[in-house]
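Form P-L/3: holo structure prediction, ligand protoporphyrin IX containing FE.
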Amino acid sequence: MSTETQTPEKKTAVPEKEVEFFAPGSQEDTISQGIEVGGGFSSGDLSMRRLLTMAAVSPEGSTDPVDIALKDSLTYQFRHGAPNVEVPPEDFDPPKGRRYSLARISNFKRTKFGPDLKMVIARGDLESVMNVAEVKREERTLLRKNAQMAGSRGFRCLGVATATVGEDGKLGPFQMEGFINVRPRGTGLSGEDLTPTSDDWVRLQVWSGGLRFLHWLNVFLIVTMSVTGFYIMNPFFGDTYFRGIEIGYLMGWMRFIHFTAAFTWIAVGVVRAFMAFTSKDRYLRWSTFWPFKKKEDFRYLRETLGAYLFLRKEGPLYVAHNPLQQLTYTGIYVIGAFQMLIGLALYALPHVSANPIWSFLATPNYLFGVPALRNFHAVIMFLFWAFVIAHIYLAFRADSTERNGGVSAMINGGVYLRRGSKPVDAPEV
Ligand code: HEM
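OUTPUT (holo model):
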């Protein structure tokens, strides 16, 4: 390493200690079985091929298994001849007293036809390389999340950062480039190990076919009623009388579709209520909608709330709905029941003389007035939309953070739990 090239470590006194990328002891196995390179993550503008090239920069004739594996993998990436990534030993600072090495290279191209750049490459433990590059919090989180995923497949992530050497020979600040995944051969999970029957994960069948059918029927009906209801409130497409054009029977069709979907939805509601009190399936019973059954339930609710507010790292584990979901879904059911009653009241008005049931259902019109009921009906629609947006966001978020497969569970019914977890609402798995 040339003397003009000041690196952060040279300024601070660090004990001279060799730090291995793989834990001591694993080295012999590593050498005998070799190292496997498995993709990586580019956080800047570098292609994965160039990132790999950077990571492979190592001293001439290096016998380090990681260096060998990286150089080997270049031959697969560059079919018409891999670039020379070997540097003279004096241009390479091994990871002494720190968890990364430094290599000086004078002809690195960031893009195929870009200029030859002089730069110093820091390569090694991801966290240490991120520190050198002074990576910002958001980028750190992104890198860590991706590293976590690679880690779950047995990979260690070799961080790569670069600093350009200026005309005057001075070293610029380090910039994070990403990481390359490496693992000792044979340690990874593959094929069957990654399937849900793996020892690490347990798949539980939670949601019955009937419930899933009702869920998607609800989605279809709510969208249909929202589009047609919105049209009744504000005919937002097609011609209108206001422009003096004959609109034909468009509004009639909208109302017909709205009422057909509405009565189907009422039937769905009745079936769901019936299931809540008669089903043998514990996850369909009314009790899964009510989180206050025993003393600890209040604590679980508080802890769940804390996790949602980012005050706690994790809330209690539930296979079905957590206490906040239970309360939200109960709330949505109650609001849905109100929507049905208001809709029925509006629908009943022209039929009051037909029979006493319609005249009873029409009562709210006399108590609140038709305009107020129509307004309530429209406001509840907007509440439903707010719920749908939050519901979809939280479902996808939980699926990606907890890895529980919650989104696909609404299609296939199964969720995943780590073996040994103790959910509140199911026996230990
Ligand atoms: C998610 C469910 C529902 C949504 C989003 C929804 C939405 C709407 C909206 C926005 C309107 C227009 C309100 C206005 O006039 O300003 C409307 C009208 C109406 N809805 Fe619904 N609705 C739903 C369920 C129901 C149900 C269950 C019924 C029961 C029969 C119903 C019956 C009616 C009736 C009778 C009208 C008045 C039609 C008219 O004035 O010509 N709706 N709906």
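COMMENT: The beta strands are 35-42, 58-59, 86-87, 92-93, 100-108, 117-125, 156-164, 175-184, 201-205, 414-418.
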